Structure formats: C-alpha cells, structure tokens
Amino acid sequence: MAKIFINPGHAPGGFPDPGAVGPSGLRESDVNADVAAMAADYLRAAGCEVMVYQSNSLADICNQANAWGADAVVSIHCNSFSATATGMEIFTSRGYTKADDLATLIMSQMSGEFPVLPVRSDWSDGDVDKEAGLYVLIHTEAPAVLVELAFISNPAEEAILASYEGKRKFAASIARGVTDWLSK
Ligand SMILES: [Zn+2]
After folding, report:
1. Closest Cα to residue 174, out of 96, 88, 95?
2. Domain boundaries in the chain?
3. pTM of the prediction?
4. Per-residue pLDDT tens for 7-25?
5. How far is the CA of 105 from the centre of ligand 1 (A)?
6. What's the topology of domain 3-182?
C-alpha cells in the first residue's frame, strides 16, 4: 500500500505562523489544512495509506516524512503577492526526478478542474513544474512536490480558496494526480 505524506503548509491552527492572509482575513494555514484533510480522504478511499502532518518546523516535517517511509510527499500552500496576481504553481527540486512526473500529473488535474486559473510555469526544464531548492523538497527522501493552489491575495481566488467546492476540487486534483502517478 502506497504511503502518501501530506503537509499542509504553515503552523497548525495558524499559531505562530498562519502563512499568507487574504484580503477578507482567510488564513493560508486553514485552507492548506482543509485541502490536505480532503485529499487524505480521497487517497484513503483509493487504497493509500496517508499521513497528514502540519508543523511550524520544516525540519520536523521532513523528519516525520522520512521516518514514516513515505513514498511521496505533497506540501500544500497558497500563493500570495498582489490583488491581481493569478494562477497555480507546482514546485519540485532542481533537476529531473520522479517528482517531476508527479507534479505534471497533479497540475494536469488542477488545470482540468480550474480552466479559469492560469498555470504559472517557467517551462525551464520543459516540464510544467518550477524548480527550486525549497527546504521540504530537498530534505525529504521521497519524491516531493510543493503545490501553490492559487493566490489568496487575489479576492477572486481567495473566494475559491474559501469555498468548500473550491477546496474539494483542489483536493480531488491532488489525489487523482497522486493515484495517476502511482499507477504509471
Ligand atoms: Zn505558504
């Protein structure tokens, strides 16, 4: 049974770090936790073993994922920049790894669910993922991706992130991307 580790970004309950906060007061840490819980439900229904772990410590997150023996790690975040910044992003560590395929499959599902949201990619390596030396991506042993669902700083996207249906669609996209990757 595949073991999928899901990390909702920022501190549990928003203390001390709620992550980004939208114009209406929506907290990233809460959106991330909701989407992670829903994705976990979908993945368990699909036969995966799932660990959801939210922590203020990035080292703690990576230690938990590695000690548990995760087969894949998905970290969930919301983007934040300005009221007009828009779209979805997914990050992997630099260079081609198995995480690149996972990122491609998750983003394919997300863009299918949210055709109005642009996919933000630099296409630097020909893949949809952006590549960066983010802590959770380089200190986890399993293939790891970091998803930026949408811009919480953009009122229209904040509304999607606040809605049950929006969160459910993001969760379903992540779960389907993971199961597509597992069955490759
Ligand atoms: Zn974040």
Report:
1. 88
2. 3-182
3. 0.97
4. 999 999 999 999 999 999 9
5. 21
6. Aminopeptidase (3.40.630)
